[in-house]
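User: Predict the structure for this protein chain, please.
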Amino acid sequence: MAGMARKVTHMAVAFSVILGAIPAQAAPNPATAEALRVIDAWADAAQTYGRWPALSIAVGEGKELVWSSGYGHVDTARKRPADGKTIYSICSISKLFTSVAVMQQWEAGKLRLDEPIVTYLPWAKLQDDGRDSVPITLRSLLTHSAGVPRDGRTSYWTGPDFPFPDQAELQADYASAKPLYPVGKYYQYSNIGLTLAGDAAAAVAGQSYNQLVESRILAPLGLSDTKPYLPYDQLGKRMAVAWGPLDRDGQRKLLKTFDTKAITPAAGFSSTAEDLVKFGLWQIDLLKQEVAPATPGVLRPSTLREMHRVQFTDPVRSGSWGLGFYVEQDGAKSFIGHDGSCPGYNTVVLVRPDSGTVVSAMTTDNREIWAEAVEIHRVLDLRRDHSFKGAAPAKVPLEDYAGRYLDNVWSNEAIILPWNGGLVRLRLPSSNPSRGLTYLKPLGNDQFRVIASDGSEMHVVTFRRDAAGKVMHYEEHHTKTLRTGGSIPEERRRAPAAKP
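Assistant: Here is the predicted structure, written as structure tokens:
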């Protein structure tokens, strides 16, 4: 269901894992380029072995979209490949745009974060349940600490028809409901809460919600593929069709279309991986500004900083929230963003202000992919921070060894790719690529030494060539692992499509 249990003009950059050819106009730095080759092969394997019907990923760095790619297909006939411009329902990521709309009205002095919500929406009053509580405010709604019901009582996440309420039905349902908890006591994720926040922003702006976000957020940011609705005229063309989860026979059911109606501020948007990266890059650029621009933009820098700052944490039910944004700390690193789960779609956008990196991923599989987006960030970090200790690696033709290797017994496959003057190996499929990398330091004469995570030098891996000089396999502990021909993702993209 919706929500989390917790100027760019470049074209999509798809490239061969072996050749790694990236167009010059969108070229990332060399370290990022090597990491992206690993990410490309890992994502291809995730989609293939997981039998995800469609997967799209995009990565931004600094001010640029540096890479995007797609895996699988967007249509039921499995003829149209997914890419970075494929449209998906982004469901709860909609809440980020609603939160920006609220803060725009706060900047304009039309909303106050700690004012009772009934000041702006007189109908938005729950039944008194006898428990003492402070009033429900916009701040508590944006941080999911208001204690309001997660969803309405019409079971609109239930298939096959997904009966979302219109505005009148929403108001009647809310007015007859009681709070789940007193305000500020617990984290309770709520689609109703962010819907109320969006309605309040629209009410004080004097516009419909859709007009508000389209004219004041999406158009100014150039997010031409992001809409406060689902463009079903593009279904199976640019928009990926929605599939249910795999059943015990390994099959998926095609799901019906849905319209979130009154719940649009919480779950009704559509977008692409590339557009969400653009949205994230705008945030990174805005955060760098110390002085508000002379011409007002979508938000002031200080406002976005306040939105990213943790406003509420619940150690019991878990979750750290800014104003609309989920904030996950990993040491000194902050993963700031949101994910979204709607029938047949799972999406995520994660912004890393410390590294200046944005990752967006989208699928038509039923599993949440927040962890996968975090892993992409971590692989980028590993290459950015990596060094081979001791003497410099011997200079060897690394591309001679790059490719896919099979042993047909102990693992499905492994990829070997250039990495900071040496090689890196990753066995596929992998749920934790950042922990599964094996570093190979070149010694010369087709030999590489395995380097442990602490820099210790381990055993030797030897590559063997045929009479023509082509690498055919490698030997490790007297076991041979054979190399296959062709580049990994391109090989899969040319193959006949498998059933989702």
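Residues 4-25, 493-499 have pLDDT under 50 and may be disordered.
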